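Would you mind writing out a protein's amino acid sequence and the numbers that encode its backbone to help me picture the idea?
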Amino acid sequence: MAVKEFPSGTVLIQSEQAITALHVITKGSVRASYPGGEFYLYKGDVIGACELFYDSYFISYQAAEDTALASYACNNGHLSELLHTKSDLSNLIVSSLFRQMKEILDQYELTKFDCENFYQYLMKSYSEYGRFTAKHGLSTRVLPGLEDVTELELEEDVPDWLNSYYGQLQRIMKSITAKSQIADFIRGMLYKASKDVYEIIYVCRELYEYKSEIAGLLMNENKLDFFDLYASLLYRIGAHDEDSTSITAALGTMMIQLENQDSIDKEMYRERVQEYKNKLEALQNAENSPADQNASASEVPDLTDSLHTILTYAECDEETTTGFKAAIEKYNKMSDKNASDDTARKLRTTITKLFYKVYTQAFMKSLSDSNIPKIVKMFFNFGYVDEKLAGLENATYLYSIVDSLPSDPSRSVYTAYEWMKEVYEGRKAPCRNEFDNDYAAYVHELKVNGKITAAEEAPMLTNLSKMVEFELDNMFQSVNKMTFGRISIFCPVFSESNVLKDLSESLVSTDKVRASFEQICATDYSAYYRETMYSNPDIGIAKESISVEILPDVILMPNVGIRGVMWQEIEGRKRTTPARMMVSIFQMEDLNSILVRLTGEYRWEMCKRIQGARWNDVSEPSLTSEYFDYIQFYKKNRELSADAKEKVKLSMQKAKNSFKEMFIRDYESWIIYEGAGSPRLNKVARTILFTHCPFAKAVRDKLKANPLYKDMMDRYGVKQSQKVHHMDNLIHKVQNSGAEVPAEITEQRAYLLK
């Protein structure tokens, strides 16, 4: 037995660390933590009493004060001998086990109770918010993710008799004095208790994530949350309205609920609360000092009867014009435009159908118009149709920016309207449709199905008007709904009810898009590089593999949305063409997070494209084949601890058993967390990601001292050195021949050093 002292704050044992000894606390106290809970161990408690029959710990332990531990070398095989020969230690293990079991069970019951109350609070808060907005004639906004939250329902809950069972078992054990005579019974009891603790903690992890999901709806970094709904409502009705006291009280209650939530970033919470207090104070001061109400009247554009202007321009038939006007008028009168009842759903479906009919008609006319009205441009770029539906403040802002949108086709960022013009003018081929058919395949299918003749097929293949109609009927309609994000309540017209934060902040620009890609590539430098063959026989280069960077085309869809779409990884069959990604022109979620996700999806799809039918054949190593093999056989993988396997299982449930979705989530962790030096992945996933999505040199330099990455970096360094050596030999060969070294070769060498 060895006794060792540790200062306060020392991490004694990390979750997933191998179990080699039992540790008895002889002085001080220890904080034991796991996802969803924590408890404290004191003098006489045994660290590891609950985990003896696993190869690794699933609880983390940290010294809460200056602490001393007496350690006994032990693993599953040596436990029986310890229990027989060391009766005092046996007594400590048993008593500590029961105390820890009670702490964990109490934590579970409290957390479950909190989850149920938290859900009820969330639903009540939204109901109250709806009551306030209806009373004041304002649009009720729907938060992304709210429709996915349901009452707590656990697949496998903790048996309700377990707490009583261990309480009675503890009393029985206290009555037995000669515990060394029942060492095998104690060993069996510890085995069962260890399994029970593991299962309870697994449920606690589910409860923690459920509670975190609700907390994230109350407050998050993107400000798409209940806190912003209530605060914005207060700012709109004014600090002196009769309901302001109730709303202020609701915000106060929300702050209390959030203050002690572990999943909420404390710094973000403080900043949001301070921002709210500052705005509230400014609002109260402004209301106490009335300003000239007419000062800015001249700055408001004339947006009266915008829908009439749009329909007149489109020159639609009377049935479409009348039907669209009636539907928009009815939609305008709805207090909850995102209602889920049949009447609301049918109305949104009608509006959607007529919207695209009007859009197509107006777009085709605009192609020969050099003086498109501003309101019609707002319709094309934002889905704007009505000043009352949009809200005058929003409509005024849209009017102010429509002639100077921050897109830039020369830098591969297009508005939807600009993209359609690129297709019409022949500079871009139409996107594939939802069945993954390109335009040529679509036309051929029309001929096969007898919808066009063989004589009509050839001219249709080069008909630019038909191409843009194909784009409007397929990609445009599908992606507009997908980027909006909440498919069940989708309506393509711009509505104030969908604006969840300031439009000027959420407007997507070319600079924002390029900055995000630069940030991603600063971590995953090879993300958008594609391998191609270079040949220059005149200077002795027969065939050389080089990598070229092809950044994607990004299309800004005319909606206020929360999602991004990676629509296709290449154009046609040529691998050196840009991918096509779409995001909303007003992005309510964090743009960088969305583009990280799309990059992960792009990596998966591009690998599948390159590997073809063998994309999941592990005999041909690739990102998709190795990741597929890892997920398919994770239960048998000896490199994964029991806890790591449970995490994979839980993650697969969240990913709805999709290998691709699972990879994308791991890729997000790779870029956002692991690239910042915060490990989140298990050893196997980390190895696959490092092999196929290696960090840039600056990141590698920061992480090279971390033992988690050392072996991988060493192997990577050797491999890259060999490639650089090959390029150096090739460059010397070209120079010795008296020829100039091609830019492609020098750029490839520079790429290998990234």
